[in-house]
Every structure is written in structure tokens, then in C-alpha cells.
Design a protein that fits this description.
Length: 81
């Protein structure tokens, strides 16, 4: 399951923001993955588009993980100080 659309309301109950997730189907993996998210502020007339990945490397969906990758020690090793 993936959330692809969100309606957000202000304190007066008026529609304030709309968020949309745009997906692509990677048939060879197989998985459905979000490739772009757009957050639109209807009251301010602004939007934010994040996740533009057309100039980035392709995701590596074949990365193998173990239970040890999700321990506090593993998190500390990956953290930056």
C-alpha cells in the first residue's frame, strides 16, 4: 500500500493543501515506487515538487538486508557526527 493523495484542511475546515504522489511500476522487480511528490498550498498559491530523479542513478532494488542492519548499533555506524 502507498498513499498517493492527501487532502489537508485548515482550522476553518477549508481545503488548504493537497499532496500527490506519482508512481512508476518497475515490472522487473516487481514493485510500485513513488517517483515524485508534489505538495500544493492552495491558499498561498505555491507548490513544492520533490523526488525529481530523472538525472539520478536508478534505485538498487536488489540490495540484501539482514536483521542486523536494523539494530541500534547499525544505526550508530551509519550516523554522522
Amino acid at each position: 500500500w502507498q498513499i498517493l493523495a492527501v487532502d489537508q484542511y485548515d482550522r476553518r475546515g477549508n481545503l488548504w493543501r493537497v499532496s500527490e504522489g506519482f508512481v512508476i511500476n518497475y515490472y522487473d522487480v516487481p514493485t510500485l515506487w513513488t517517483t515524485l511528490a508534489v505538495h500544493t498550498d492552495l491558499q498561498a498559491g505555491r507548490y513544492l515538487a520533490i523526488g525529481l530523479d530523472n538525472e539520478s542513478r536508478m534505485y538498487d532494488f536488489h540490495l540484501k538486508r539482514t536483521a542486523a542492519d536494523f539494530t541500534p548499533a547499525a544505526l550508530r555506524r551509519e550516523g554522522l557526527r
